[in-house]
Amino acid sequence: MDDEMVQDAVAKCVEAIGEAAGQIVRLESRFPNLRLSDAYSARNRLSHGYHSVDHGIPWATAMKSIPPTVEVARLALAARGDSAGAP
């Protein structure tokens, strides 16, 4: 967290995940634990309000929220029988 480059990299990764979530938000009703609309909202906040972002928020998102979301995404892929695109 002390390195500005790391802060920017984490924010960019969270932003990229949010953009991808926006592309598949229609699946949220089938997999509510993915919280796709929340991810997309976070992406919008990072993209359009980057100058006023508390860098602790993307960091906490990357460390606490993304790992369980990845697990839910893997389960969703397995449920539809397609693990080829699993992260």
UniProtKB/TrEMBL annotation:
<dbReference type="GO" id="GO:0004540">
    <property type="term" value="F:RNA nuclease activity"/>
</dbReference>
<protein>
    <submittedName>
        <fullName>Uncharacterized protein DUF86</fullName>
    </submittedName>
</protein>
<keyword id="KW-0378">Hydrolase</keyword>
<dbReference type="GO" id="GO:0016787">
    <property type="term" value="F:hydrolase activity"/>
</dbReference>
<dbReference type="Pfam" id="PF01934">
    <property type="entry name" value="HepT-like"/>
</dbReference>
<dbReference type="InterPro" id="IPR008201">
    <property type="entry name" value="HepT-like"/>
</dbReference>
<keyword id="KW-1277">Toxin-antitoxin system</keyword>
<keyword id="KW-0540">Nuclease</keyword>
<dbReference type="GO" id="GO:0110001">
    <property type="term" value="C:toxin-antitoxin complex"/>
</dbReference>
